[in-house]
Specification:
By secondary structure, the chain is an all-alpha fold. 80% of the residues lie in helices and 0% in strands. Helix 8 runs parallel beside helix 13 and helix 9 crosses helix 13. The radius of gyration is 19 Å and the shape is globular.
Length: 301
């Protein structure tokens, strides 16, 4: 039981880091293009883990295997696709729509868990997922009508990829060494982001690229992103998913926009309406509903 609470607090901290860093990253990509930013972010994080692997007491051969490489690449492709669809989608839709549609992954994860891992999910899990989705709607739209557009379709694909990433991590995490799996995953994202940046974004000279990275806002965002919101966050998620189901991870990650809203209030002078506050409460209640039912079921068993 004590380990369960460590897992919950760790995942909540990850959601907090992602939500709180949104403002920092949003400012940085005004100087350094998004795909280039993600390339530096993920390659930097991968190099951190590669250093840990090389200097670890456990022999590298004992950590690596062909199956590990395949699983790590699959996770990396899902994660890269999620970020890519989200980035391109933002060019054609609003940040409000993006936040809500990305949150649809909360409902998609249980479906993928049933299909991929053949898990049998209890009714409270579905109720909690729907409650979290309602909370996300109230938080992001604050009672306003939802208007669908082309960018929303791209962000929906982003939600599918994020959901697949969580579901696949739930399957693969217990099969491999955490650091090795995360290293391959982050390397895959970094390589794909680099290729995409070179193909899709305006080319910069090496001098301009270095100048962009050394910009104070960009440099600060990269330090936060490489260390906290990428290296630590994905290591923590992978380790936690050895001990918790994918659907419950998705519910906890639904708090990310809540923390983003709190950060916006504290540092950007934003305000939350009454419905948005109710949305935050719905998200937190969804986690309570899912966990309370799960605890009772475990006690009966």
């Amino acid at each position: 039981m004590k380990r369960d609470w460590i897992v919950y607090v760790t995942l909540l901290f990850v959601a907090f880091v992602w939500g709180a860093s949104f403002i920092v990253v949003q400012a940085a990509v005004q100087t350094l293009p998004p795909l280039a930013f993600n390339a530096v972010r993920f390659i930097g994080s991968a190099l951190l883990f590669l250093g840990v692997l090389l200097f670890s007491r456990v022999k590298l051969r004992e950590r690596l295997s062909p199956k590990l490489a395949v699983h790590g690449i699959i996770l990396g492709i899902c994660l890269f696709a999620a970020y890519a669809f989200q980035t391109v989608g933002l060019l054609h839709t609003t940040t409000t729509n993006t936040g809500f549609i990305t949150g649809i992954s909360v409902v998609l994860v249980p479906f993928f868990s049933v299909m991929l891992a053949q898990q049998k999910l209890a009714l409270p899990t579905w109720i909690a997922a729907v409650l979290a989705l309602v909370g996300l709607y109230l938080l992001t739209f604050n009672g306003q009508a939802f208007q669908w557009n082309y960018g929303d379709m791209l962000v929906l694909l982003c939600a599918v990829c994020f959901a697949l990433h969580i579901a696949f991590t739930g399957i693969y995490a217990s099969l491999h060494d955490t650091i090795a799996l995360v290293t391959i995953q982050l390397t895959t994202v970094g390589v794909l982001a680099t290729i995409s940046s070179l193909l899709l974004e305006p080319l910069q000279s090496p001098a301009n690229f270095i100048q962009s990275i050394l910009d104070p806002q960009v440099l600060f965002a990269l330090i936060v992103s490489i260390g906290l919101s990428t290296a630590l966050a994905f290591w923590a998620q992978t380790w936690c998913q050895k001990h918790i189901s994918a659907d419950r991870v998705a519910l906890i990650f639904a708090t990310e926009p809540v923390f983003a809203a709190i950060t916006g209030i504290a540092f950007a002078g934003e305000r939350l309406g009454a419905l948005a506050v109710w949305g935050c409460l719905c998200i937190f209640c969804s986690m309570i509903v899912a966990e309370w039912k799960w605890t009772r079921r475990q006690q009966v068993q």
